[in-house]
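Side project, low priority. Logging it here so it doesn't get lost.
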Amino acid sequence: MQEKLLFEYAVIRVVPCVEREEFLNAGVILYCAAQNFLQAKIELKEQRLHAFSEETDLAAIQKRLLAFEQIAAGTPGAGPIALLPIASRFRWLTAARSTVVQTSAVHPGLCKDASETLMKLYDQLVG
């Protein structure tokens, strides 16, 4: 029987007007040290976002969300943060910030397959 492994995740949120503290869940980032896994699954639901604000700069938000995915993946050319070890990248991505793209608090769990768990969480929290 395969052992369950500790993972941590956070919800990636778009906050079009930081002062109002309203947000739209746009993705999930999941880290599992035992599986050497760090990945973000993101999809911006533009129609939902327009319900918050029609004046939102979609291109700027998409650029920030892409940076989250690239840093999580350790993509070469994504900047110095993308070159850090996996744990450091996860901590940097989930650090508290008051910008248009933020993350929730970090939550722990147990899984057998981090990739499968990421997809389940994405479906539950974003889909």
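Brief comment: The mean pLDDT is 93.
Revisit when time allows.
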